[in-house]
From TrEMBL:
This is Phosphoribosyl-AMP cyclohydrolase. GO terms for biological process: L-histidine biosynthetic process. Zn(2+) binds at residues 99, 115, 122. Homodimer. Its cofactor is Zn(2+); Mg(2+). GO terms for cellular component: cytoplasm. Catalyzes the hydrolysis of the adenine ring of phosphoribosyl-AMP. It is an enzyme of class 3 (hydrolase). It comes from Kushneria sinocarnis. The lineage of its organism: Bacteria, Pseudomonadati, Pseudomonadota, Gammaproteobacteria, Oceanospirillales. The gene is hisI. Binds 1 zinc ion per subunit. Binds 1 Mg(2+) ion per subunit. InterPro entries: PRA-CH, PRib_AMP_CycHydrolase_dom, PRib_AMP_CycHydrolase_sf. Its EC number is 3.5.4.19. One of its GO terms (molecular function) is magnesium ion binding.
Length: 150
């Protein structure tokens, strides 16, 4: 059994209050081939799921240190501090790691829209067996947030 598997197996049986050093967890977490991990952002007080993005170790460490959520932008190939161009920031309330060490849950306080479409969240298309249906309107015009280049 690998050290990573051992770390997360131990946590499965751990009592509340059990602690592990952050560096050990970061070392043992399962990052993909690009060194990334999915991070789900959820509004801390309402439970609303806002978005999914990617984090690398450095962006997670920055988020934990500063309290301002920083993701890894795959399209720009650089850190993406949520709200750096739109002003629609996310403040970290709590970060959680799933049981396998391969997905993050970020409980955040979202300022305004989380989605680049100007909507509160990215999950605005409901799927059924027959169709997809848009179920929420933008809070703000994306051109207002990002300019006409978006």
């Amino acid at each position: 059994m690998s050290q990573a598997n051992d770390t997360f197996r131990q946590l499965e049986k751990a009592s509340p209050g059990t602690r592990q050093p952050l560096d050990r967890l970061l070392d043992d977490m399962t990052w993909n081939e690009q060194g990334l991990m999915p991070a789900i952002a959820q509004q801390h007080d309402s439970g609303e799921v806002l978005m999914m993005a990617w984090m690398n170790r450095a962006s997670l460490e920055e988020t934990l240190e500063t309290g301002r959520v920083c993701y890894w932008s795959r399209s720009r190939n650089r850190p993406w501090r949520k709200g750096e161009s739109s002003g629609q920031q996310q403040q970290l309330i709590e970060a959680r790691l799933d049981c396998d060490g391969d997905t993050l849950l970020l409980l955040v306080d979202q300022l305004g829209a989380a989605c680049h479409t100007g909507r509160r969240h990215c999950f605005y298309t409901r799927l059924t067996r027959e169709q997809g249906e848009v179920i929420s309107a933008p809070l703000v015009d994306p051109e207002t947030l990002y300019g006409a280049s978006q």
